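Hi V.,

Quick status before I head out on leave. The structure for the redesign project is tokenized and pasted below; the design run finished overnight.
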């Protein structure tokens, strides 16, 4: 096993840190343990070990603000770009 010798720091709001630490403590982990696990799995899998597709609160608020109206969809990025270019 490799010896831990580097420090990684991340900024997070206090409430999220507190809530996450409480959840992790219930399963016997610290935030540092969980972060080490995340980084090791990222290396082992060659990418994030999960799909980061859960919408944030801001995204959910934007969706709600839109009022559930039908949104335009596109078959490709080229089709989207063409529509945007047309104005």
């Amino acid at each position: 096993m490799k010896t831990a010798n580097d420090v990684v720091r991340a900024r997070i709001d206090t409430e999220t840190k507190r809530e996450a630490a409480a959840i992790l403590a219930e399963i016997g982990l610290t935030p540092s343990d969980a972060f080490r696990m995340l980084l090791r799995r990222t290396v082992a899998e060659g990418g994030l070990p999960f799909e980061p597709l859960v919408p944030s609160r801001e995204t959910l608020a934007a969706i709600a603000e839109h009022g559930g109206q039908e949104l335009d969809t596109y078959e490709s990025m080229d089709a989207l770009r063409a529509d945007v270019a047309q104005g």
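Above is the designed sequence. The first helix runs from residue 14 to 26.

G. will cover questions while I'm gone.

Best,
W.
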